[in-house]
């Protein structure tokens, strides 16, 4: 499946940022532009539309927004492939033409390093909090975090797009299970 998605990811389509793009203002318009005009693939995550685990058992001052945004996000697979410079140039231009669209693309693309980093860092914090109250559950959570860690260098420069997609899909699964364990919704049966 992933090979089908990524086989045509050569830089054959650098999106044109024109007046039309400036007028886009809703998520359906963004999605239509990315898929129809740019030829990118956009698909929801595995848990899209499913109830989010309630993290109310965690302290209210513990950041959990990065985990929630990652679960809510989408897999947005562009046509830049490994051409990071062209991708960066496109993103800079998009931020000038339509800052709101740019911000949405930043916030909801599960393949962005920032999304991955925030989710994993919040998992670390939550695991430490849970471990202080419930050492067995905390141990399981820590193992989940350890199995999900990757460095910026590994993710950004060493992983090809197909590996990033595999990693993000696995992180999403682990993260949803992690959030369930934090909320007390799931039993500790996770294989990391």
Write a brief structural summary.
This protein is mainly alpha-helical. It has helices at residues 2-6, 19-23, 27-37, 65-72, 84-97, 99-108, 113-133, 135-148, 152-158, 161-183; strands at residues 41-44, 74-77. The protein contains 10 helices and 2 strands; from the N terminus they run H-H-H-E-H-E-H-H-H-H-H-H.
Word description of this protein:
There is one protein chain. This protein has 192 residues and is mostly helical. The protein has one domain (2-49, 63-183). The protein has 10 helices and 2 strands, in the order αααβαβαααααα. The protein has helices spanning 2-6, 19-23, 27-37, 65-72, 84-97, 99-108, 113-133, 135-148, 152-158, 161-183, and strands at residues 41-44, 74-77. It starts with a helix and ends in a 9-residue tail after the last helix.
Descriptors:
192 residues; mainly alpha; two-stranded antiparallel ribbon; 10 helices; 61% helix
Q: State the distance separating the first and last CA atoms.
A: 23 Å
Q: Could you say which overall geometry the principal axes of the C-alpha atoms support?
A: elongated
Q: What's the domain count?
A: 1
Structural class: mainly alpha
- Average the pLDDT over all residues and give the rounded result: 83
Rounded radius of gyration (Å): 18 Å
Strand numbers in spatial order across the main sheet? 1-2
Strand content: under 5%
Helix content: 55-70%
Number of helices: 10
Give the SSE string: HHHEHEHHHHHH
Q: Main β-sheet, in a few words?
A: 2 strands, antiparallel
DSSP summary, beta strand count: 2
> Low-confidence segments, ≥5 residues, pLDDT <50?
1-12, 187-192
